[in-house]
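Tutorial, part two.
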Amino acid sequence: MNIPSVDQSDRHVPINLRQSGPTSVEMLIDTRVRKSPYWHLSMDAGCWRASVYNRMYHPRGYVRPEDGGAMVEYEALVHHVTLWNVAVERQIQVKGPDAEAFVNFVITRDATKIPVMRARYVILCNEAGGILNDPVLLRIAQDEFWFSISDSDLELWLQGINVGRRFDVDIQEIDVAPVQIQGPKSVDLMVDLFGDAIAELPSYGLAEGQVSGHDVIISQTGFSGEKGYEIYLYDASQHAEDLWNTILQAGEKHKLSVIAPAHHRRIAAGILSWGQDMDQEVLPFQVNLAYQVPRKKDAPYIGKAALEEARDQLDVGVYPFTHQMVGMIMGGAPIDDYAPDFWLISQTAEASPTGYVTSPWFSPELGQNIAMGFVPIEASAIGTELWVHLPEKYSDIPGSPVAAQVVPVPFRESVNPNQREILQQRGMDAAL
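Running the prediction step on this input gives:
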């Protein structure tokens, strides 16, 4: 068997690095995987392909390749305003007298410092320090939090942690489904929907509102690096059409487009995708999330001992892992769609692969391909030259790798700098 020999000795289940390429497989739509309340509306908007995320069908393309594909959707995002069906961000509610204590125990950051009606990007780790999920955490009330989750079964994990009612809380998924409004004109559309005050909502701020008489929570968050918001609809299974159609109508004058979650823009912003850039066997320190491990949180939390031990090793120059995530610019023809494989990375053009790309795309602003990927520690310094084995469709010379170079992340400035960037500017390495 042709299995690349990239060192994955620090993993229990290696990443499948066989280069199988695109495969002609039709997705089966059946009742084992859930359809979100907005699924049929995405079909009406022209969705032609999907994946599965959090055991739900996830729209992943509206503009067909012959019409320009994902890069047409990119142009709509960076120049106008877009609507995304992101109901796959299932909302897990933790509510009760011990809600704050429970959340503080399962996330690495300090939940006691999150005010009511504010959100935070957080991570949850297992006892080995591996990343289980990286949700946006919304604090709706003193005794109520919502985990707006990435792609893993976080509800089951949280319920398992609380077997025997160690904490006086109820943990359950709720009938709340978000959409995202992303792009430079998003604030204009949101003002039309909710009034002038919404323009003053700070990054990761929350607000209550109504759309067509239905209650919603609004956050200034998103998965793009552009100006953007999320609208969380209560009782979404009943009111999805009202929300969706009202947004479409209000968005007409702003050139609103319905698009898929913009992985091309989130890569430029250095935003990670769970299951693609990290999983339960990856430590935060490997993927630029060291700031999520506070140095001054006294309260216990799951994974604390392992994470503090790993950081102590790193502080003295010892690496408890073999590979580090880096940003790269690289040659080749413009990568204009999702990669079907983890493309391989070598340290010289002739050498055997030692790393792999997780998230590649073409950056119109830089005029070249960009990517995030894992490389050996000794090849992770800024400026290091690498070679990426692209498929024939994108390679300069079929069968030969293209030149690449390690560069800082993000590749493009975000409208709202993330917490990692803010802390770097302040010379700090950990959030409170």
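The chain has a mean pLDDT of 95. In part three we will examine how such features are distributed along the chain.
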